[in-house]
Design a protein that fits this description.
Elements lengths: L41 E3 L5 H10 L2 E5 L5 H15 L3 H7 L5 E4 L15 E6 L20 H24 L1 H4 L3 H6 L7 E7 L9 E6 L5 E6 L5 E5 L2 E4 L7 E5 L1 H6 L9 E4 L6 E8 L6 E2 L7 E2 H15 L15
Helix pairs in contact: 2-4
Length: 333
């Protein structure tokens, strides 16, 4: 009689629900190999071609960025430090990480519960609330210092803010922005930084790493590892975004689409779950000033803080994000 195959021991750093998946009814995710790879524009930040940039914003909603000036050793150190924190036990992370580094799991953001469980966990840092050398913060009784992580996040965030400002300023003429809008529509140093870890998933046919969504940001900058799994929706077809070393992925969010009067695309994207290999990514999100009022030919004037509040209310009541549709001229809901 053959003995039953031994099951791997549950990873104590994973949320308990990730050990034994419950019944799930969302559409079955496809295999990445069954979908085509998308060829997206590759832009050089130091020799920025404005025609290529505006074309990418209008036709695709995302692009790769090379020669961006982010030191590769900074990205590597930050990923390593994030992995160390996320490898701590789930109970330690949940009990001890709250400010300024918050721990979350099962949803793409903190304090929101989406309709379907996302097979992810991560760290959330409001960049406006940290500064270099911000004290010797420690993770409860685990003895792991957060100081180096916060320092690295601060340094990395400055690079992200620089990149966001260069790109946004370059689009000024095409977006027809005045000096006040140029400042209020992008508050780059008050951006949000998140680390996403996608644990190994034993049931990839029934779970997504992150379900399909658009970002609420002006723009988002993604620094992914070499595992893959990121996909974008173009012309009703999902495409794989293949990782390329030393490049960043920049995707536009809802605020950029509103600012442009729908000329630019807030690209819908998702992440597939992986059975055998963890995936990790560093993500920066740039938003408008909270009180800034976005004026657009296609949308009712709205403050970013009101958009954010509406998104949170929609997710709370329905489990899904309604997004820009709520603010479109002619929409009565």
């Amino acid at each position: 009689m053959e003995s039953a195959a031994l099951q791997p021991s549950p990873n104590p750093s994973y949320p308990p629900l990730f050990h034994i998946p419950s019944h799930h009814t969302s559409p079955s995710p496809p295999s990445p190999s069954h979908l085509p790879n998308i060829q997206i524009p590759l832009l050089d930040l130091h020799h920025l071609d404005l025609t290529q940039l505006t074309t990418a914003c209008k036709e695709v909603g995302l692009f790769r960025l090379a020669n961006h000036g982010v030191p590769s050793d900074l990205s590597t150190q930050l990923m390593d430090q994030a992995k160390e924190l996320l490898s701590l036990s789930f109970e330690s992370k949940k009990a001890s990480l709250s400010h300024p580094v918050a721990y979350f799991w099962g949803t793409p953001a903190v304090k929101l519960s989406v309709k379907n469980l996302n097979w992810l966990e991560g760290l959330h840092v409001p960049l406006g609330q940290i500064s270099s050398g911000g004290g010797d913060l420690r993770l409860g009784g685990c003895g792991s210092s957060l100081s180096s992580f916060i320092y690295l996040v601060d340094e990395y965030g400055k690079h992200m803010a620089r990149i966001a400002r260069v790109l946004f300023d370059a689009l000024r003429a095409d977006l027809k922005l005045d000096s006040e809008q140029l400042t209020s529509y992008l508050s780059e140093f008050d951006g949000t930084f998140r680390v996403y870890r996608y644990p190994c998933c034993p049931d990839v046919s029934n779970y997504f790493g992150m379900e399909a969504h658009t970002d609420s940001s002006v723009l988002s900058i993604v620094n992914q590892d070499n595992v893959g799994g990121l996909q974008v929706l173009q012309d009703s077809t999902w495409f794989n975004v293949t990782p390329i070393p030393d490049t960043l992925i920049v995707n536009l969010g809802d605020m950029m689409q509103a600012i442009s009067g729908d000329e630019y695309k807030s690209v819908e994207h998702r992440v597939l779950a992986n059975r055998d290999t963890e995936r990790i990514s560093l993500c920066y999100f740039a938003f408008p000033v909270e009180d800034s009022v976005i004026v657009s030919s296609k949308y009712k004037p709205f403050a970013y803080k009101d958009f954010k509040a509406q998104v949170q209310e929609d997710i709370k009541t329905t489990g899904s994000k309604e997004g820009l549709r709520r603010f479109r001229i002619g929409n009565s809901s």
